[in-house]
Target: SMHD1 protein
Amino acid sequence: FGISSNETFVITTTNRMEITEDNFSNLVHDGVTLYLLQSVDQMLLLATKERIEFLPHYDTLVKSGMYEYYASEGQNPLPFALAELIDNSLSATSQNTGIRSIQIKLLFDDSQGKPAVAVIDNGSGMTSKQLNNWAVYRLSKFTRQGDIESDHSGYVRPLPVPRSLNSDISYFGVGGKQAVFFVGQSARMISKPAGSQDVHELVLSKEDF
Model:
């Protein structure tokens, strides 16, 4: 890399976790993106791109929650799909010490290119690795293990109580991706992890698949 012998540098993950001799063996080395920086908190000069390589499960696109939503006892299935998306925000804000803010916006103008449903919250945020994990169908947030940057680390499933801000309201449990593709054609996740200066963005679309 052309680094002089007297220059200090660090190697970090995209979550700005410094790679050391102690944690290097825990890294998943297949396709992982690393930063070579002068310091852990160095500002990136420009945006970086990372292609997520995985085989999407055909159910994500072919079924997309259709069975569950259309079998919703003759009720309008759209609220159930929105409940799946809001459930992610409930998980993300469950550990907030202050106000929990969750907004649902229906955008009918051309600001997003096409009409869109936006769910916005002030939760803990996700790292690029956690966004990567979210993209993989049938990889539950409660079963992801063996990764030093696993998704929803520290999240504890709440006790089974009536559906509220303190419960999992996911009605069918078919997941956010099926809900997204039941409602529309693509998903854009924008997230800033708590305590981080970096913003991570994930785009999934049926066209890409």
Summary: The CA atoms of residues 7 and 175 lie 47 Å apart. Confidence is low (pLDDT under 50) at residues 139-155. The chain is about 20% helix and 15% strand.
